[in-house]
Amino acid sequence: MIAVIMAGGAGTRFWPLSRNSMPKQYLRIAGERSMIQLTVDRLLPRIPLRDIFIVTSADQVPLVRVHLPDLPRDNIIIEPFGMNTAPCIALSMLFLREIRSCSGDAAIVILPADHVIRDREAFLRSLDQAQETAAEDYLVTFGIVPSYPATGFGYIEAGGEIAPGVNQVVRFKEKPDLATAQSFIQQGNFFWNSGMFAWKLNTILASIASLTPEIQAVLLRIAEGWRKDGITADLSAIYAQMPRQPVDIAIMEPAPCRAVIPVDYGWSDVGSWKALAKLNRPDPEGNILPRRHFSRDARANFIQSNKFTAVIGVDNLCLVETDDALLITTLDRSEDVKFVVEHLQKEGFSDLL
């Protein structure tokens, strides 16, 4: 199996800690190692480093090399700039075929660089299931067994069983309202869309060619550029013509042969400060506080600061401090940090981005 890790995102929902110069996947927010390091570590019992590829934007290549110094340099697939997951994956699959001459029957697993998975052994077992299913020309996705009626995730409706622990995909559903999410939980055959996929190289390339003619046209021009000028060819103008579509919409939804593997291995996309708070062990009052602190009549607060912190009479507070910025909100509104980033971009405060 070959692993392709997508590591080009900006991680704006973790402002002010995440910046353009240090996106979320390079932060140590889920352990002693960065998220991209943890993602690679998780794979190594099953996939050797020589078969792990990182796809990232050109400006993040130096960060990849710092965080993964043992990764072969030609295992970094460079996007001229970030687009969306369909262009990113399409470019990566073309790279594996055209530059690395990978077998069309090679099994590929696609993973984001910034997810948390607690049960590594269960994760590795699911890769074995995915490889077996992909061998039958299915496009495979991993569906997370929901622990609550989340409205922030897309869902996958599972149908009949293909093999033990593997089901057909009936449909993909975008983020639902609360009532719809509750009905999904009650039905029992809906799973969170994890954004992780597996397939054979030939299968995905054939799907791209048949389902997304716009992407296919760009890929043909990129392949021509590589053959003419080599891997260092400047393909920015060509790549900019890619449609900015997620792979779910461009490929998975219209594909005729799809499978989902329901999994329950302590997964989180760590999509907000609130999600990160849930990954930490709180004190008896539910607080996540700096090592040096004082608290009184304070409950369910998340505070990240290098300073001694006193917390008195406040609940559900989210406070994140860096050298040049301070975020103060509630945990329930922590995803609204995206509006701060939009404001900074609009006002030209590039030093805070």
In short:
With 353 residues, this protein is of the alpha/beta class.
Q: C-alpha Rg, in Å?
A: 21 Å
The named CATH superfamily of the largest domain = Spore Coat Polysaccharide Biosynthesis Protein SpsA, Chain A
The total domain count is: 2
- Straight-line distance between termini: 37 Å
**How would you spell out the order of helices and strands?**
EHEHEHEEHEEEHEHHHHEEHEEEEEH
Number of helices: 11
Q: Could you describe the 3D structure shown?
A:
- With 353 residues, this protein is α/β, with parallel strands linked by helices.
- It folds into two domains: 2-268, Alpha-Beta Complex (Spore Coat Polysaccharide Biosynthesis Protein SpsA, Chain A); 273-352, no CATH class.
- The protein is built from eleven helices and 16 strands.
- The chain has helices at residues 35-43, 61-67, 85-98, 120-134, 178-187, 201-211, 213-229, 236-239, 247-252, 273-279, 337-347, and strands at residues 2-6, 52-57, 76-79, 107-112, 116-117, 139-144, 155-163, 166-173, 190-200, 258-263, 267-268, 293-296, 302-304, 309-312, 317-321, 326-330.
- The chain has a five-stranded mixed barrel. The protein has a three-stranded mixed β-sheet with strand order 13-15-16, covered by helices on one side. Strands 5-11 form a two-stranded antiparallel ribbon.
- The longest helix has 17 residues, at 213-229.
- It starts with a strand and ends in a 6-residue tail after the last helix.
